[in-house]
Design a protein that fits this description.
The protein is α/β, with parallel strands linked by helices. It folds into 2 domains: 19-239, TIM Barrel (Alpha-Beta Barrel), CATH 3.20.20.10; 257-375, Beta Barrel (Lyase, Ornithine Decarboxylase, Chain A, domain 1), CATH 2.40.37.20. It is built from 11 helices and 20 strands. It holds the Pfam family Ala_racemase_N.
């Protein structure tokens, strides 16, 4: 706990989080999913924080998704017992998975090939096998098998014949991050749902119960209108939100709960630059808005009270230097920011920016007072 500190007192660059905005973002999604009658399985990869996760289910451990076994172990230590490890499993990780399951954690793994299924079928945690979800590809974004691929029931049969549990299917609509506008976001959500349900029906027709039909991404979770046949929704970015989500219409910049605080260290007025001590080591190299209608550079720039400077972007970054300049074509004046001025950078990608820091400095609502430090889970 920190007392009598403000955003002006800490060494820059650092990450600041507004917990009131986090709580509002969580409340928004929970209400939406409650209306659709489907529970949330939060993806903790964005925040990797027990303190943030505590806000998800009123302080009690709830179902979560993780992207690393270090996350699974840290959350298991804190009492979480219902965990999906949503990165394709490999044999060298079976031992850690087995240790967690022997501790009473219902840890479910993910796979999308017969090769993985055959390896998993030989792994045991006592008298039972490790349960698995089969990853389904709904939009060609990354991993998974198509719901109509004949290999899908073969994967399931390989698991079942080896004594492993076919828990169901998991779909992630990764291309929804490029779906600009409400109509396209709703279409992405429906396509995600349809593919997941179709895959589950294929498995059931082949004799597998497949009780879990898991879908989710932050865009589709917010724009799903019908979740018939779905048993859970996964999302993670929504706790913080970012400029990519704002750019496609999932949120506004006022909903961004996380900013990077940096200090002005110099000027190159001949180039129209303001230099800061926060480069890509503080904000990441993510340029997720570069493909959107409005390119936000490496992030928007605000004062410590959160007021955006007109048309001012973090336009470039080296390892420890940030460059602030006006948006191309802007008629605004470059703001007068003397050396020592602190500014906030609103990030493109909350997950990538959070990964650059090991703690969050938590502020009071509508204040620069820092009231707590929340540690972030480290490791893989």
């Amino acid at each position: 706990m920190i007392t009598r500190s403000t955003l002006n007192d800490l060494e820059t660059p650092f990450l600041a989080v507004n917990p009131a905005t986090v709580a509002a973002n969580i409340d928004r999604l929970r209400k939406h999913l409650d209306e659709l009658g489907v529970p949330l399985r939060a993806h903790v990869k964005t925040a990797k924080s027990l303190d943030v996760a505590a806000l998800l289910h009123d302080g009690q451990p709830g179902p979560i998704t993780v992207s690393t076994l270090a996350e699974a172990e840290a959350f298991a230590d804190a009492g979480y017992r219902d965990i999906v490890y949503a990165v394709g499993i490999t044999p060298h990780k079976f031992a850690r998975v087995t240790m967690l399951r022997r501790r009473g954690v219902d840890l479910v793994v993910l796979l999308d090939s017969v090769e993985q299924a055959a390896a998993l079928a030989t792994a045991r945690t006592g008298m039972t096998g490790i349960p698995a979800l089969i990853e389904i590809d709904c939009d060609g974004h990354r991993g998974g098998v198509r719901p109509d691929d004949p290999v899908l029931p073969v994967i399931a049969r390989t698991l079942a014949d080896g004594g492993a549990e076919v828990r169901g299917v998991l779909v992630h609509a990764g291309e929804s991050y490029y779906a600009d506008g409400a109509d396209r976001l709703r279409a992405a959500a429906e396509n995600e749902r349809r593919c997941a349900v179709q895959a589950a029906e294929v498995l059931r027709a082949a004799g597998h119960e497949a009780p879990v039909v898991s879908v989710g991404s932050t865009p589709t979770a917010h724009f799903a209108a019908d979740l018939t046949g779905v048993t859970e929704v996964r999302a993670g970015n929504f706790v913080f939100f970012d400029l990519v989500m704002a750019g496609i219409g999932v949120c506004s910049t006022a909903d961004l709960a996380m900013t990077v605080v940096t200090t002005v260290i110099g000027h190159r007025l001949d180039k129209g630059w303001i230099l800061t001590d926060g480069g890509w080591m503080a904000t990441s190299r993510d340029r997720g808005t570069a493909r959107q209608r409005v390119d936000q550079g490496y992030g928007l720039v605000a004062d410590l009270d959160g007021e955006l400077y007109p048309d001012l972007l973090m336009s470039d970054a080296s390892q420890e230097h940030g460059v602030l300049s006006l948006r191309p074509g802007s008629t605004a004046a470059l703001p007068d920011l003397p050396v020592g001025t602190r500014v906030r950078i609103l990030p493109n990608h909350a997950c990538a920016t959070a990964a650059q820091h090991d703690r969050y400095h938590v502020t009071e609502p509508d204040s620069t007072a820092v009231v707590a430090v929340w540690p972030r889970v480290q490791g893989w």
